[in-house]
Specification:
- By secondary structure, the chain is mostly helical.
- It is built from nine helices and no strands.
- The longest helix is centred in the last third of the chain and has 27 residues.
Length: 216
């Protein structure tokens, strides 16, 4: 278990007060969150000790304790920043009138929210989070919000196509999540595409797949 104790010798900076090496606290916090998001996303919550984050961010562990209270506090800050961006972006895409257009708008919103930080997706859907735990509860809040909007969109798309079997809906939702997650993982390894280019690539590749003739 990570050490949750805040060192007594460290006094947290007040808002607006300079952080380490003259960097304002607000700026330093975001720098630490950037590094922690990358490490938690790449390696999973269970595999990233606070010492590794401190070393990668070029700060001391006591400073992280001062800013975030604990490793869980830092993790929660990472998840909230990533989750708020994703949920806000996907929710805004739901205002697109046509059902098919809404699916494309949702994809674009996800890619735009993840531009430059594909680890944010893995941070929220981290399989290494212990259950039950505060860390899992924070991530689960955003999982539920994103999954709920995904389920609603899938249901509308299939209903419009005349597909009413609940099991078909369940399978389609699973496929949608896996396709999006796999595409984000591919984008992480091939970061040359812009969000708009990723949307076009997704539509082109999976549109070709869905239009292919499948013989028994």
């Amino acid at each position: 278990m990570p050490d949750q104790t805040v060192p007594n010798s460290t006094v947290p900076d007040k808002p607006g007060r300079a952080g380490t090496k003259g960097v304002p606290r607000e700026v330093r916090e975001q720098q630490i969150i950037d590094v922690a998001t990358r490490l938690f996303g790449d390696h999973g919550y269970a595999n990233v000790p606070l010492s590794k984050i401190a070393a990668a961010a070029g700060v001391s562990k006591p400073l992280i304790y001062a800013y975030f209270d604990s490793r869980d506090g830092l993790h929660a800050a990472c998840v909230r920043r990533a989750g708020d961006r994703l949920v806000e972006a996907v929710a805004a895409a739901q205002d697109t009138p046509a059902v098919a257009g809404r699916a494309v708008a949702t994809l674009t919103a996800i890619f735009q929210a993840l531009d430059g930080s594909t680890q944010s997706w893995k941070l929220i859907y981290d399989a290494t989070l212990p259950r039950p735990s505060d860390a899992y509860d924070v991530a689960r809040k955003y999982q539920n919000a994103l999954n709920g909007m995904g389920a609603s969109g899938v249901a509308e798309l299939l209903t419009e196509a005349g597909v009413t079997d609940p099991q078909d809906h369940s399978l389609m939702l699973t496929l949608w999540f896996q396709l999006v997650s796999t595409t984000i993982a591919w984008w992480h390894d091939n970061p040359h595409d812009s969000p708009a280019e990723m949307t076009d690539r997704f539509i082109r590749v999976f549109g070709t797949l869905s239009g292919a003739r499948l013989d028994r």
